Amino acid sequence: MGFEIDYLAIAPELILVATIVMVLVLDFVLPRRAKYFTAIASVLGVTFAALPLLILAVDGGSREMFDGSYTVDTFALVLKGLFIVAGYLVLLMSVSYIEGDRYYQGEYYFLILCSILGSLVMASSRDLIVLFIGLELTTAPLFMLAGWRKGDMKSNEASLKYYILGVLSTALMLFGMSLVFGLTGEVSFDGIREGIGDAAAGDASTALGLAVLLIIVGFGFKVSAVPFHFWAPDTYEGAPTPVTAYLSVNSKAAGFVGMLILMYLALPGASNYWAPALWIMAAASMTIGNLAALRQQNIVRLLAYSSIAQAGFMLVPFAAAAVSGTDLSEAFSATVVYLVIYSIMNLGAFAVVIAGARKTGTGDIDGWAGLGSYDARLGVLAAVFFFSLAGIPPLAGWFAKFVMFRSVMIAGGVSTVALAVIAAVNSVIAFYYYARVVKSIWLDGAPATALGDRADTPAGSLRLALIIAGVLTVLVGIYPTLASVFGDASRVLAAG
Amino acid sequence: MVELIVFALMAAASLAGGVTVIRARNPVYSAMGLLATLFSMAVLYVLQLAHFVAAVQVIVYAGAVMTLFLFVIMLIGVDKDENTAETIPHQRRLAMAIGLIAIGLGTALVARGRFSWVPLVDTPASAAETNGTVQALAEPMFTDWVLAFEATALLLTVAAAGAIALASTRKPIISRVPSSPAVSPSRRAERGVGGSGQEGRGGHPVLPPAAGDTRAGS
User: Fold this and answer.
1) Which residue from A118, A137, A358 is facing B206, i.e. has the nearest CB?
2) What pLDDT was estimated at residue A15?
3) What is the full DSSP assignment across A212-232?
4) How many CB atoms lie within 10 A of CB B209?
5) What are residue A240's DSSP bridge partners?
6) Would you state the pLDDT for residue A206?
7) For residue A300, which residues of chain B lie inside 8 Å, CB to CB?
8) Per-residue DSSP letter, B26
9) Which of A35, A37, A39, A419 has the fewest Cβ atoms surrounding its Cβ within 10 A?
10) Which among A117, A129, A451 is the nearest to B145, CB-wise?
C-alpha cells in the first residue's frame, strides 16, 4: 500500500482549499465595507489554481494516487481547466451583482469556491466514493446559493425545488452505486469493469440493470435532462443570475463528466442498459427543451430550456455510439469538445443577460427591443453568443454541432441516424428562438421609455467576463483546432 | 454467560426507554427515555465488538442529536399543552394493522426456516481480526481515503457556513417591488438599491430576472 501524496498533482485543489480558508477568515475579520476583498481573493485564488494545471500539462503523463482512485491525466487536466475557467468567469460575473445588492459576500464566494473544488475532485475521481463526494461537493453549495436572495419568494422556491429534487436524485444514485458495489464488491472503476461481466451474465442481471438506471436518474437530474428537468426552469429563474450561469455550466458539466467517466470506465459491460436510456434522454431533452423554449418570454427561462436542449445535444454522441455498439472514444471526445464550447458560449450569454437586465431594467425579451440601437457593443455580444448557441458557422457553436454530427455519422446504424435526424430538426427549431432574442435587440424599435441615456456601463469585472467569453467564442469558431485539442486529450482516457 | 446477562439487561433497558418515549406526559422525560435507549444500544454494539459504532452512537446520537432535541423542547416550551388530537382518519386501526402485518411477516420468516439466531460472539483471538474496531476503520480512512475524508469535512463546513448565511438576519433585506406596469423599470431600479450608499463601487441596480414571466407547461 503505497501511501504517497503527489503534491504537484493535487496542487490546484490545495490552492483552492487555501483560498477557501482565506476567504472565510477574511470575511470574518474585514469590516463590512471592505468585504469585496473576499471577491478579489477568490478571483486571485482561482487564477493561481490554474498555474499548476499548466505545469502538469507541459509535464504530461498520468499521475495516480491512493491506489489509482485519484488520477491526474490529460483528460482530468482538460476538465479541470474547463471548470477553473468557467468558475473564473462566474466569479467575475458575480462581483458587481453580489456587491450591488449587498448579499452575504464572503459566504457566497466560499460556497462558489467549494463547488469549483468539488468539480476538480470529480474530474480526477476513478472510484465511486471519490466520485460521489466530488459530485456532492459540487452540488451541495448550490442548494444554498440558489436561495441567496432571501427576501425573494422566487429565490426561495428555486432553492427548495432544487434541494428537494436534488436530495431525492442523490439518494437514488447512491442506491444504484451501492447496488453496483454489492454486485461487484469493488468501488474502483477498474475493479467494477472487470467484475461487471460476471454480474451481467449471472442471475443478478436484473439488479445490475436497476443499479445502472438508478445511477442514470441521479446524473440525469444533475445535467437537467428530460424527464428529470422539472426543477431547472424555476430554479434558473429564481436563483441569482451568476448562480444560474454556474448551474447551467459548471454543475451541468460536472454531471456530464461524472456520468461519462462512470459509464465509460466502469460500466461498459452494462451498456445494453444505459445506451437505450441515454438515447431516450437525448431525444426527449432536445425535443421538449426546444419546444418549451419557443414559448418563453423571460430570457432566463429561455436559457433554462435552451440548456436542457443543449444537454440533449451533448448526450447524442455517447448515446449514438453506445446504441450502435461502436468504439466510444470518438463519442467521448465529441462530448468533451461540445461541453467546452457550450460552457464558454453559455457563460457569455448569461453575462449578456446580467448586463442587459441592468441596462433595460427587465428580463423580458420584448423589453430588450432596440437594445442594439442604444448599446451597440452589448447588442453585438448578444448576437455573438446567441448565434453561437444556435450553431451559426463563424462562431464556436458550429464546431460543437459539427463534432456531434460527425461522431454520429461514424457510428452509423438505423437508430443512430434517427437520433441524428431528431438532432438536426431540433437545431433548426433552436435557431428560431435564439434568433428571436437577436431580432428583438436589433430589428425591433426601442420603446419610447428606453433608457438609452442611462450611463450604466457594466462593471469592470463583468466587462472582462464578456470580453473573455466573446474572444474565445469567436476564436474557437475560426480556429476549431483549438477546441479539438480538448477532444484529443480526452482520447488519452480511452487509450489508458 | 456474562454476555447473555448484559444483553438481556440492555435489551430490556432499551425497550423500557422506548416505552418511556411514547408514554411519558412530559416531553423531557420522553427525551430521557430516548437517551436510555440510545445508550443501551451503544452497550449492545460494544457487546458485538463494534467499538467504533458504539462510540459514534454515544457521541453523535446520545450527544449531539439529544442536545438538539432538548434545545427544541426547551425552545417550544415544556409547559405548553400540546394538541394531541389525531388528524389522520382511522389512525389507531391503521397502526394496529401495520403492527399485525409486521408480526405476521416476522413469524412467517421464522416458520419458513430462513431465519436463525446469530450466536453470541466469542472472545476474539486478537483485536486485529475484528472488523469494527477503531484501528481497522482508522487506517484506511486516513491513508487510502484521506482525500475523500477531507472533502467530506469540507462538505460539512459548507453545510454549516451556508446554513448560517441563510438563517441569519444581519440586516433587513431590501424588499423587492413586484413587477407591475404602474412602476417603470427605472423607478424600480432606484428603489432596489436606493440609499444603499454603494453607488460608487458597482452599486448597480439588479432587477429580478423574473420580470414579465410566463410559465409554459407548469
Assistant:
1) A358
2) 92
3) HHHHHHHHHHHTT-TTS-THH
4) 26
5) none
6) 81
7) 209-210
8) S
9) A37
10) A129
Please check whether residue A107 is in contact with residue B159, taking contact to mean a CB–CB distance below 8 angstroms.
Answer: no
Instruction: Compute the mean pLDDT over every residue in chain A, rounded to the nearest whole number.
Output: 85
Quickly state the pLDDT bin for B89 (edges 50, 70, 90): confident
Q: Which residues in chain A land under pLDDT 50?
A: 1, 453, 455, 496
Interval B18-58: pLDDT, tens: 999 988 888 888 899 999 999 999 999 888 778 888 888 99
Of A129, A451, A456, the CB nearest to B204: A456
Please name which of A452, A422, A394 lies closest in space to residue A309, comparing C-alpha atoms. A422
A265 CB contacts (<8 Å, ≥6 apart)?
A126, A189, A190, A193, A493
Instruction: Pick the residue of A362, A433, A449 with the most B CBs within 10 A to test the interface with B by mutation.
Output: A362
Phi, psi of A83 (to 5 degrees): -65, -40
Q: By 3-state DSSP, what share of chain B in percent is helix, strand and coil, each rounded to 5?
A: 60, 0, 40
For residue B7, what are the β-bridge partners?
Answer: none
Residues ≥6 apart with Cβ < 8 Å to B66: B31, B34, B35, B38
Q: Measure CA B80 to chain center.
A: 24
Residue A454's pLDDT is: 53
> For the segment B49-59, what is each residue's pLDDT rounded down to a tens digit?
788 888 889 99
From chain A, pick out residues whose CB is under 8 angstroms from the CB of B205.
Answer: 100, 358, 361
How far is it, in rounded angstroms, from Cα A94 to Cα A462?
8
Report yes or no for ipTM above 0.85: no
DSSP per residue over A405-432, as a string? HHHHHHH-SHHHHHHHHHHHHHHHHHHH
Cα separation, A398 vs A403, in Å, equals 9
Yes or no: say if A331 and A407 are a contact pair by the CB < 8 Å rule: yes
* Rounded Cα distance, A158 and A405, in Å: 35
Q: What is the largest CA-CA distance in chain B?
A: 84
Distance between CA A148 and CA A241 in Å, rounded?
11
Reported as a single tens digit per residue, the pLDDT across A196-237 is 877 666 667 788 888 899 999 999 998 888 888 888 888 998
The rounded radius of gyration (Å) of the Cα atoms in chain B is 28
Query: CB under 8 Å to A381, separation ≥6 — which residues?
Result: A348, A352, A466, A470
User: Does B210 score more than 70 pLDDT?
Assistant: no
Which residues contact residue A216 at a Cβ distance below 8 angstroms, ignoring those fewer than 6 apart? Answer: A176, A259, A274, A277, A278, A281
pLDDT at B115 (0 to 100): 65
Nearest C-alpha in A relative to B174 = A151
Burial of A368 (0-12, 13-18, 19+ CB in 10 A): buried
Rounded Cα–Cα distance for residues A387 and A394 (Å): 9
> Is residue B194 pLDDT above 80, yes or no?
no
What is the pLDDT at residue A171?
93
pTM for this model (two decimals) = 0.80
Helix, strand, coil shares of chain A, percent, nearest 5, are 80, 0, 20
Q: Do the beta carbons of residue A328 and residue A318 sit within 8 Å?
A: yes
C-alpha distances (whole Å) from B161 to each of A95, A138, B165 are: 20, 15, 6
CB A300 within 8 A of CB A236: yes
Q: Which of B1-5, B72-76, B214-218 is predicted least confidently?
A: B214-218
Q: Is A77 on the interface with B (CB under 8 A)?
A: no
CB atoms < 10 A from the CB of B2, how many?
7
CB contacts of A358 in chain B (<8 Å) are 204-207
